[in-house]
Amino acid sequence: MPAYAMGCARTTALDPTTAPVANPSVAHPVLMSPFSGPKGSIGDKDSSNNASTGGLSTGIGFGLDNSRPGITKLYAAVAGIEQHLQNYTDDYTPGVTLPNGVAATDSRLVAIGGGKNVMTAGSGTDWSRATSAPVPYTAGFGLMAWGNGASRDGGAGPAFTGFGLKAVTAAADVAAAAVIETGFVNRSGVVLKQGLSQFGSASAASAALA
């Protein structure tokens, strides 16, 4: 899926001879798959060497730059009863957190079958009767995001990585590009007001897919 970041000039976007090989971080934030998002990852380029962001969604109210910082309201407990505000829990990590708030142990939330199948030959070495079974990744599998200063790529391969996101809450007003909570940065482009929550961009790169 060759793609450009929203609002990013063509000369600084995904021309495979220039910037996508460098790690784009400008323009509107984009959510991306760990399987094709980080530079040089499994599905990063097509047969014509066009780079892909692995972009999943832009501008639809879910991501690093919601239309209004703080629109990501969290669950609140009143007299022991959880009130569903906008169906997110504190520390919710897209692609990782199960509905009950517990972290998944593999990538089945990111892709059907966990994003990877393994072929097994029939009768020892008879590949004409091979079977295929899903073998989900168990590391580095959360959704990633880049833009508004967040890099698309977290380092050179072959361990291609990116930067994840998590629902975090501002203890005080947080300026654009400043830390919301330890390890997570405000990439909305504007001030996040005290007490509101937003998806923060991880400042540490993810683990490599494995």
Please give the number of β-strands: 11
What's the gyration radius in Å? 19 Å
Cα separation of the termini: 23 Å
Regarding quaternary structure, how should these chains be classified?
Answer: single chain
Helix content: under 10%
The structural class is mainly beta
Mean pLDDT reading: 76
Unreliable residue stretches: 11-21, 81-85
Give the overall silhouette: elongated
- Give me the number of helical elements: 0
Topology order in helix (H) and strand (E) letters: EEEEEEEEEEE
Q: Please outline the major beta sheet.
A: 4 strands, antiparallel
Spatial strand order of the main sheet:
8-11-10-9
Q: Strand content of the residues, in percent? A: 15-25%
Question: Can you put this structure into words, describing what you see?
Answer:
This protein has 210 residues and is mainly β. The chain has no helices and eleven strands. It has strands at 30-32, 55-57, 76-78, 81-83, 117-122, 126-134, 144-146, 165-169, 179-181, 184-185, 197-202.
What distinguishing features does this structure have?
elongated, mainly beta, 4-stranded antiparallel beta sheet, 11 strands, 0% helix, 210 residues, 3-stranded antiparallel beta sheet
